[in-house]
Amino acid sequence: MGDVIRRFGPALLEQRGARLTSAQHAVLSTLGRCHTAALGGHVYRCDACGVERPAYNSCGNRHCPSCLGHKSAAWLAEREAELLPVPYFHVVFTVPAEIAALALGNKKVIYSILFRAASETLLEVAANPQHLGADIGFLAILHTWTQTLLHHPHIHCIVPGGGVSPDGTRWVKSRDDFFLPIRVLSRLFRGKFLAYLAEAMRAGTLRFAGSTAPLATPAGFASFLQEQRSKDWVVYAKPPFGSPQHVLKYLARYTHRVAISDRRILDIQDTGVTFRYRDNDRGQQTMTLGGPEFLRRFLLHVLPTGFVRIRYFGLLANRNRAKNLARCRELLAANSTVHERSTPSAPAIVKPADDERYRCPCCGTGRLRHVGLLSPVAVPDLDAWAPIARDTS
């Protein structure tokens, strides 16, 4: 991604610079310097052949595809200790295209409503005695992209298959192949989301421009809400994970991600950027976009400053998570029926051994040893169009 930014960043700023937010400018500047001499670095020497190699520092920005590995590993270690010995379900909440268009100019407001409506829907339906009749907890992750980098905000929820009874005395187990009714979730989610959206309109916190400009009037916004109420909103549940270890394996590749990974970028030429994407009907495909257009799509997914995209709700809410997890384990241990279903195990996440990560690429046998530091240096070509900006992420 850094290579794409360094090649096409100036053209993007020339075309659209005035329309980029301060956060988007900062991402361009920061990711453009990632793993370059502009950030300084370290010098490593092979203890066998003596060759020296520089290793430039990473930017650490949460939107950088190259900088998420170490953050993901630490986060996953904490989540592994929190997994319960039950099946886990994957529930996804998404919004219509018209809501997504409104969100582009109101990311913080709309994304917050999306979290609130999705979480309250799951908690409320699960607590209903006609459905599960239990207090549940879950992890929710915001994604805002499609495989072709278009804007498509949606929430992924990873939910244990069961919860604690209202009186707190027993574990209520869900069915192995069914968690909560999708139609009920969809309609309640739609109602809650539109109610909170109307509340934001009355509070004056929404901005309208471009295709959403007609919604700025009370009549236009009322008509918009009525149109959305008439639609079926998409909520779906994927098949349950086979085991808690499968949950961890899924989270390892799914949580700390951005709109596109470096592995999906196949070629960078003057004509544009070619990348791989997955089509539901045709499988793996490739697409080439002009460099500025590729960056424009990538920057659609820059989050507002300080916005939290991984959140915990119900029994897993941050304040009482440790206490609630301990209680859940006590109830599960007392309820032998939850252990009747055997689940296949998944391979543990394998971290690269130090010997492999630091093996000399020249001789193949020696080990690279740290021997010195590299101070940051000016990069005139980069500094000319991307002055150092405050890292907003």
Tell me the distance between the termini.
17 Å
> What is the CATH C level class of the largest domain, in words?
Alpha Beta
Beta-strand residue fraction: 15-25%
**Which outline best applies?**
globular
CATH topology of the largest domain: Replication Protein E1, Chain: A
Give a structural overview.
The chain has 393 residues and is α+β, with helices and mostly antiparallel strands. The protein has 2 domains: 2-62 and 352-385, no CATH class; 82-259 and 300-339, Replication Protein E1, Chain: A (3-Layer(aba) Sandwich), CATH 3.40.1310. Helix content is 37%, strand content 21%. It contains 12 helices and 13 strands. A 5-stranded antiparallel beta sheet has the order 8-3-5-4-12. A 3-stranded antiparallel beta sheet has the order 2-1-13, with no helix packed on it. Strand 6 and strand 7 (171-173) form a beta hairpin.
Briefly characterize the structure:
This protein is an alpha+beta fold.
Topology readout:
Elements: H1 2-16, H2 22-33, E1 41-46, E2 52-56, H3 69-80, E3 88-94, H4 97-104, H5 107-127, E4 137-145, E5 151-160, E6 162-164, E7 171-173, H6 182-203, H7 218-229, E8 235-241, H8 244-254, E9 265-269, E10 272-279, E11 283-289, H9 291-299, E12 310-314, H10 321-334, H11 354-357, E13 368-374, H12 380-385
Antiparallel strand pairs: 1-2, 1-13, 3-5, 3-8, 4-5, 4-12, 6-7, 9-10, 10-11
Helix pairs in contact: 1-2, 1-9, 3-8, 4-5, 5-6, 6-7
Descriptors:
five-stranded antiparallel beta sheet, alpha+beta, Replication Protein E1, Chain: A, globular, 2 domains, 393 residues, 37% helix, three-stranded antiparallel beta sheet
